[in-house]
Design goal:
This protein is α/β, with parallel strands linked by helices and 262 residues long. It is built from 9 helices and 10 strands. It has a 6-stranded mixed sheet with strand order 6-7-8-3-9-10, sandwiched between helices.
């Protein structure tokens, strides 16, 4: 997808009209006797930016990991770009090929360079030759303003730099959807802004995004839809203006009062 190679980004909401990128219907998930997700329903349209928030243990990360089949839901259906996530491995592979994910702890290979971290998937999954893979990788490292670090090992970078590498690695695979699972929670405070700046720019390009985060300033700026979860359920879904000024549920009001005071 050539969208990320453009130097000018136009903020576009809900590209594709009512076409759903992700459809989640009555999804439940257990870990032993603990129910992590309880009949969750959520539709995400193409080009929509969704921010999921809620207290620890509310099911946010479990939900986003189910969307990429890193966790397997026991009940309900999840459809990603027309591919239902089920026991059919071809469906799962097809969905993952169109979905990028950025984790809390970077998940970079420590023993190879930044550039090699990016080219690995391009060569093994996308079957690019090394020269072409390196060209693509450098374009995305430039995109996240870290091209000059391409020769270094991940541990030679700051946390913020490593997370930008992780974002570039996902973008190299040219996904239609990006999932972010608390991408700044492992960073020192002074490093958070550099990662959020990249995510804001990505959001403004029109990418479909789901982001689990407590960064409410970021949420106000980029979200089309806010989702509040508690005890494995979606308690409230609304546009940011309504969410932050007139939350409907008492539980959401309590959560925002606590988090916005910090």
């Amino acid at each position: 997808m050539t969208l990320f190679l453009l130097s000018i980004f136009v903020k576009t909401k809900n590209i594709g009209g009512d076409q759903a990128a992700i459809q989640i219907t009555d999804v439940s998930k257990w870990f032993g006797e603990f129910q992590a997700l309880d009949s969750v329903n959520l539709n995400v349209q193409l080009g929509e930016r969704v921010v999921i928030c809620g207290p620890s243990g509310s099911g946010k990360s479990t939900l986003i990991r189910c969307i990429n089949r890193l966790e397997i839901h026991e009940q309900g259906t999840i459809i990603v770009n027309g591919h239902e996530l089920n026991d059919d491995k071809h469906n799962v592979i097809a969905a993952r090929n169109e979905t990028g994910m950025v984790f809390q702890h970077f998940n970079l290979f420590p023993h190879i360079s930044v550039l090699e971290n990016l080219t690995l998937g391009l060569m093994r999954v996308r079957k690019h030759q090394k020269v072409e893979a390196e060209k693509i990788a450098m374009q995305y490292l430039e995109r996240v303003n870290i091209a000059e670090q391409s020769h270094k090992l991940p541990q030679q970078l700051s946390g913020g730099q490593q997370q930008r590498v992780a974002i570039a690695r996902s973008l190299c695979m040219e996904p239609r959807i990006m999932l972010f699972d608390e991408p700044t929670s492992a960073l020192d405070p002074e490093m958070i802004s550099e990662v959020l700046d990249v995510m804001v720019e990505l959001a403004e390009s029109g990418m479909t995004m789901i982001c689990v985060t407590h960064e409410m300033g970021f949420a106000r700026k980029v979200a089309d839809t806010m989702v509040f979860m508690d005890a494995g359920k979606i308690i409230e879904t609304s546009p940011p203006n309504q969410f932050f000024t007139e939350p409907e549920s008492q539980r959401c009001q309590q959560f925002l009062k606590q988090i916005l005071q910090h």
